[in-house]
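pinned: reference chain
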Amino acid sequence: MLIAPSRFERAAALLLVLLFVPLLWGTDWKAPQEQLAEKIIAVTGPGAISLEVTNRSSLSHADVDRIRQGLSAQLASLGARFVNPDQANATVQVSLSENIQNYVWLAEIHQGTNEPSVVMITTPRSDSLASTQDVSAMAIHKTLLWSQDSRILDVAILSGNPQQMLVLDQDNVSLYKFENNRWQIEQT
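pinned: its structure tokens
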């Protein structure tokens, strides 16, 4: 004897399916595709373009393919026709990259002999991806260590007391010692 599922059971099953569909299909890239397409067309205008998409991020191949297809569809809906680069009025090179919080999509647009134009959009990374990666804080500081008339090829600070510095230039390797709040040459 078969027992038909109740309305509640059918509703619960439908709810579960709807909750898991986004996981099966991945992230919805429609909004960032629309934003980038609008910015590209604002520069190129409608017409013949070539499009290249390069992934420099942690996005999967499947996501990159979905982004490429969606971006192409958005561009086409705004009047872009896709041709080979030698026949295009504009070549568009899209780079998909990321930082700690966002995906960063850049489009470098070349039109004839004009200077290239660059447009950019950001879209938040999914919480699951951001939380699974161990992110260490890093800071970069620019400090002038040494300057001289001849070209410096490399500089190394040696730990110790007193602190020492090696400077490699085109002709010499020089060793300096830090004394009286300044670097003094020790040996060349």
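why pinned: The mean pLDDT is 85. The first helix runs from residue 7 to 25.
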